[in-house]
Write a structure and sequence with these properties.
By secondary structure, the chain is mainly α. Helix content is about 55%, strand content about 0%. It contains two helices and no strands. The protein is flat, with a radius of gyration of 23 Å. The chain starts with a helix and ends in a 7-residue tail after the last helix.
């Protein structure tokens, strides 16, 4: 019987990390904390969007040749 692609790849695949994971929960973040974090980064996201749009406008008519 032919092996599935998963079975064939598993033979030579290497783990991405040597870290051993556990199912123990280290910390829980409440919805209120997530909301507070979102508010703190909102200004940075807005600034990044502004810079990205300005960069696009600046480079719109630029032609790059190899």
């Amino acid at each position: 019987m032919k092996k599935s692609i998963d079975e064939r790849v598993k033979d030579f695949a290497k783990p991405a990390s040597s870290v051993k994971h556990s199912k123990k929960i280290v910390a829980s973040i409440s919805r209120a904390e997530v909301t507070k974090l979102n508010e703190t980064i909102k200004a940075k996201i807005k600034q990044n969007k502004k810079e990205r749009e300005e960069s696009f406008e600046e480079a719109r008519d630029v032609i790059v040749k190899d």
